[in-house]
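Write out the 3D structure for:
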Amino acid sequence: MQTLSTARSESQILATNKVLKNTYTLLSMTLLFSAATAGLSMTLNLPSFGLFTLVGYIALLFLTTKFRNSGLGLVFVFMLTGFMGLTLGPILNAYLATSNGAQLVMTALGGTGAIFLALSGYVLTTRKDFSFMGGFLMVGIMVAFLAGIGALIFSMPLLSLAVSGMFILLMSGMILYQTSEIIHGGETNYIMATVSLYISIYNLFLSLLHILGALSGND
């Protein structure tokens, strides 16, 4: 019995390590691809995507989820992250047009990287289970999303700033949660794990950029 239990435990560890390795490899590739498409969008000086950003995101996320267990899932995850990179271009151009825009972008980028590495490292080191945060995070994201729409419709800068603060906390929580799900076997699909972490990083970066811009008087 002990032999079977040990073999099963080793098999689970190997499976978890494989998901973790594949997730971080794919995440690195999608972040680089997204950065390339953002650079292309900036070079071409593309206009803001507006509502099309949400429509395109939902459609590509649906397709990625639908085909997550096949090779097409990889195609759609690159389409999704590439598209999100394109939508980032006009936002970055708007900030870079300001006097200290380059500094703001680099600070937000550095802050995003530091937060992601610190939170991921904490979970990987302590192996703490954050599965209890799942329901709270889903509700929090929905509330923040609706508040963000309200801030946009009614032109409420302070509410918009508060929403960015909420998203920083929520996306940080998502990084803890998703990393925990991977190492504890709650998430076995590396494509979906990659998408979750990518979206967290994307929103974390934009939220930090928004707050930094507001504090510097550029928003």
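The chain has a mean pLDDT of 92.
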